[in-house]
Specification:
The chain folds into two domains: about 240 residues, Vaccinia Virus protein VP39 (Rossmann fold); about 80 residues, DNA polymerase, domain 1, CATH 1.10.150. The longest helix has 15 residues. By secondary structure, the protein is α/β, with parallel strands linked by helices. Helix 10 packs across helix 11, helix 10 crosses helix 13 and helix 14 packs parallel to helix 15. The protein has 16 helices and nine strands. The strands form two sheets. Strands 3-2-1-4-5-9-8 form a seven-stranded mixed sheet, with helices on both faces. Strands 6-7 form a two-stranded antiparallel sheet.
Length: about 350
């Protein structure tokens, strides 16, 4: 589903007039009528009109690795970027405040609703679209854009989603066992744990959670659901805590919840898709910046970038090196950027973030 919004203004000089204080050209990015139509389709109109989430909770986004992102993307007047993980709009606002134009997408309707209002002062310099970043080409085409100067992806679950119990991502706050980034469609975590066979659950916990006691967790789930189907996050967390013992500061269910979230949202599959699509919308000199939070994501991004940054390939059985047909990226840094101590002190959730950057050649 794509939110209908005004086409991107082709004349970058005209867009500069839409920055805060830039004149009379400021317009609402998404009208109330358009938002009502979108939420009506998703079956959430009453929720928005009668008791908007924005009046009942804080939706926030401390942009992780902000300094490093600005250094990598170098935003400025006349440049346009795609932020595929809009969240609370933290990174997008950084880019906008430096004079850039941003098309921001998110599959979470809460994000679209909140950021559309939060960043409305930037007028046509910011265009929000609802959809998964794996559909990057479609989302950009919907606003008349075929290329951007940079693509930013901040992977994983947002702080808002973790803290909002009814989203079902956290075992610390009891809520419905949902875990969908886009609550308008798809299978919930409850659907998955109540229907998948034991072998499938073992695979999910091992591959996506790297959980050593995957067998014990899956067996406990199958036995428990035979008595009562899982509906709440606390029910699942309690069952897992009985068979996986706490180590360090992490809750016993941490890896199982991570694995279920990745499976429900096909996070690794869509990541592979969006990386390929990013290459098609970036011109020479365009920047791909990806922030990851766990080893599974980071491994995919690292291997993708490295495989396309080697000009020549060599094998022991070859008489001489051969040109790499995939070569199209330059890596300014071979190792990822990590948050500095002052950022971790201010935002503890940033501690595991890694930023990898590649430049299209």
């Amino acid at each position: 589903m794509i939110i209908s919004i005004r086409p991107w203004l082709e004349d970058s000089d005209r867009n500069q007039d839409c920055l805060p204080g830039g004149g009379d050209g400021l317009v609402a990015l998404t009208s109330d009528a358009e938002m009502e139509e979108l939420l009506q389709e998703a079956g959430r109109l009453d929720e928005w009109t009668n008791a908007s989430r924005l009046n009942r909770m804080e939706f926030y986004h401390l942009p992780v690795l902000a300094r490093e992102v600005l250094e990598a993307l170098q935003p400025g007047h006349g440049k346009q970027f795609y932020d595929g993980t809009l969240g609370g709009g933290g990174h997008t606002e950084l880019l906008l405040s430096n004079g850039a134009h941003v098309i921001g997408s998110d599959q979470d309707l809460d994000s679209i609703e909140y950021v559309s209002k939060k960043l409305s002062e930037y007028g046509d310099s910011f265009l929000p679209v609802h959809g998964n970043f794996s559909r990057m080409d479609e989302l950009l085409a919907s606003v008349g854009v075929d290329h951007v100067d940079g693509v930013l992806l901040d992977l994983g679950v947002s702080s808002h989603q973790l803290d909002e119990a009814e989203r079902g991502f956290s075992f610390r706050n009891d809520g419905p066992l949902d875990m969908r980034m886009d609550q308008s469609c798809g299978m919930t975590a409850a659907d998955l744990v109540n229907t998948a066979d034991q072998e499938e659950l073992i695979r999910i916990f091992r591959e996506y959670g790297e959980e050593n006691r995957a067998y014990h967790a899956a067996k406990a789930i199958v036995e428990a659901r035979a008595v009562k189907k899982f509906e709440r996050t606390s029910e699942l967390a309690d069952v897992i805590a009985k068979v996986i013992h706490k180590t360090g500061r992490n809750h016993p269910a941490t890896k199982v919840f991570q694995a279920l979230r990745i499976a429900v949202n096909d996070e690794l599959g869509v990541l592979e898709v969006v990386l390929e699509k990013a290459l098609k919308v970036l011109p020479p000199g365009g920047v791909l910046a990806v922030i990851t939070f766990h080893s599974l994501e980071d491994r995919i991004v690292k291997q993708f970038m490295r495989a396309r940054s080697e000009k020549m390939l060599d094998r022991p059985e070859w008489p001489e090196p051969k040109p790499n047909p995939q070569y199209c990226l330059d890596l300014p840094h071979r190792k990822p950027k990590a948050p500095q101590d002052d950022e971790v002190d201010a935002n503890f959730r940033s501690r595991s973030a890694k930023l990898r950057v590649a430049i299209k050649v």
